[in-house]
Amino acid sequence: MLDKIDLLDRRIIYELDFNARMPLSQLAKKLHVSKQTVKNRIDKLLERNIILGFYTDISASKIGYEIYIVYFKFYKMSPEKEAEFINHMCSQKNIGVNISINGKWDYGIDIWARDVVEFEEIYRNAMSDWEKYVREKDIMIETGFYYFKPTQILNLKSNEMIAMEGPIERPELDATDTTILRKLSSNARVPLTHLAEVTGLTPNGVKARIKTLQSRGIILGYRVFINYQKLGFLHYRVFLHMESYTPQLEKKLIEYLKQNKTCPSITKTIGYCELEFRAVVSSVDEFYALMNDMKNTFPEIKEYESIIYAKMHGAWNYFPF
What we know:
Blueprint: H1 7-16, H2 24-31, H3 35-47, E1 51-58, E2 66-74, H4 79-90, E3 95-102, E4 107-113, H5 116-127, E5 134-148, E6 161-164, H6 175-186, H7 192-199, H8 203-215, E7 219-226, E8 234-242, H9 247-258, E9 265-270, E10 275-281, H10 284-297, E11 301-312
Antiparallel strand pairs: 1-7, 2-4, 2-5, 3-4, 3-11, 5-6, 5-9, 8-10, 8-11, 9-10
Helix pairs in contact: 2-3, 7-8
């Protein structure tokens, strides 16, 4: 069942994305409504599963991790077994994303590992009882991402961006930082008072820790987990295969997609294609219009493949430990 939301709901979602820890009083002032109105609207959006939660973008590379994306095509897996598999994967540590998809693959996961050896160990432990149901799989290593504001829900453009890029770093994170990141990763709006209780710090002490994590580039932003399908959008992921690929071409592609209101994110990967991006569109026609324009603008595109996100299982977790 599709849900309709009015302009105020759309503006609430838009303003909170990238800054989901914004106090209700600040959001109310920005939108020229009462604090109670904003609270009631957010509660309703959560109740209707239009907002599935609030999460924190945490830079994997800044905390010493790589992200390995694995796509599966299932083989002789019954619906009952698939449900069991999904529950199993959602309970695994180091797995931050679980998605059912339609297209070339049936399911996708993100595994966080310090190196390829640890990735293999995590993968084998998670898949030991399930590999027999996999007909084929593809593995990619994420080397960077760019996230944009959800402009499609307001039909506008924005230059705001969250980026994860750069070499792997091995920082020292103490138990307090780890606790704060774990709590924020699953609920970006968790109150300072709760974080103070679980860390033993004062609220101001927690605030200072968070500010430091932000200044170090570990915390990148606070996001809204939007259920685009509930709003009637089609949610694609596109894989671009290029004839030639240079840093200059990559920069042009990223700028093109950044300016396109249908694109909420771009992912740089190694192992399958040159570049991936997500497209949130109102119809199949809109998607094909986007891809035709891209092919005309960038003749270097040899071919592209696409999948549709069918269902997200649990919120995205950028600290799955």
